[in-house]
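In the lab's daily routine, each protein ends up as an entry in a very long ledger. A line of letters takes care of the sequence, but it says nothing directly about the fold. The fold becomes a row of whole numbers, each drawn from a learned catalogue of backbone shapes. The protein below has been through that process, and both of its lines are reproduced in full:
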Amino acid sequence: MDGRDEFYESLRTEMAMRARLLLAGKSRGKAGQMLPDDLVQEAMAKLMTAYDDASLRERPFNQLMALAYRTMRNLVIDQGRKKGAYLEDRRDDDEPARIVTDEGPLADELLGAGQRVERVREELSRLAPEERCFLTQVMQTDSVPAAQKHCGWPPKSPYYVLKRLLTRLRHALRELEPEAIGG
């Protein structure tokens, strides 16, 4: 038990040092900044979810730290993207602002949503079983490595494969947009 604690404590200590370096200068003094300890905890959770104890221990230390750093960097990038999505101003869009009322959605909106769901289902049914498994696992776990490990597929370039699958679904949904139907 002591060896296990010592391994993870040394890993956590090294990750904390690298997290401080990674976050240095990033959003310094801004509200909502990720703290190094939080970053280390999230990265450790992702690593423990994606890899088992034995595979983490058998990696050479430099490879393990490269994996940990890449995980922390991706978490920082993801946080920045989430903030960007929250900060988008709807007034900049060309669409007119919609007044929110207590009424439910209009019938034509429900029909459009139903068509989109049906189109996604059709596209998913056209995928090969391993593609469907991979995409479903990514959506459920929010982790490409975990999905790749669960499905045993794809053997190489999982991020490229995910991008290609999502692009395919996006194109299928674009066909339902009013401009595509009317134009």
